[in-house]
Amino acid sequence: MSLANELAARPLAERIQAMEQLWDSLCREPNYNPSPAWHEEVLTERRAELQRGEHKSWQEVKAGLRNRS
Questions:
Q1: Which one-letter DSSP state was computed for residue 10?
Q2: What is residue 68's predicted lDDT score, i.e. its pLDDT?
Q3: Cα–Cα–Cα angle for 29, 31, 33, nearest 5°?
Q4: What digits encode the pLDDT tens for the residues 5-46?
Q5: What are the helix and strand counts (H, E) for the chain?
Q6: Is the pTM of this model over 0.70?
Q7: How far is residue 1 from each of residues 9, 13, 29, 62, measured CA to CA in Å?
Q8: Residue 1 DSSP label
Q9: What CA–CA distance (Å, rounded) separates 54 from 46?
Q10: What residues contact 49, with CB distance under 8 A and at least 6 apart?
Q11: CA-CA distance, 55 to 44, in Å (whole number)?
């Protein structure tokens, strides 16, 4: 039986706990970096937009998306 099948047979709460333990162990890896390098570039640009006052509220973004279709 595969690990995936073994986990699927477990109760939901136990699977969630296993997932949390696995994630915690991954985060302790010295070379672990969950974000790709381009994320930092996007965040830097978003911060600059905020400083320039060019950001939009979530309501504005949702309205714009709804109007596109």
A1: S
A2: 87
A3: 95
A4: 999 999 999 999 999 999 999 888 888 777 888 999 999 999
A5: 4, 0
A6: no
A7: 11, 21, 28, 46
A8: -
A9: 9
A10: 55
A11: 13
Strand ranges for 1-67 from DSSP E: none
**What b-and-e string marks burial along 8-43, b requiring 16 or more CB atoms within 10 Å of the CB?**
eeeeeeeeeeeeeeeeeeeeeeeeeeeeeeeeeeee
Average pLDDT over residues 48-58: 91
- Residue 69: pLDDT band (50, 70, 90) is low
| Angle (nearest 5°) at CA 25 between 21 and 29 | 165
Residue 65 contacts residue 58 (beta carbons within 8 Å):
no
**Smallest Cα–Cα separation from 20: which of 28, 32, 30, 35?**
28
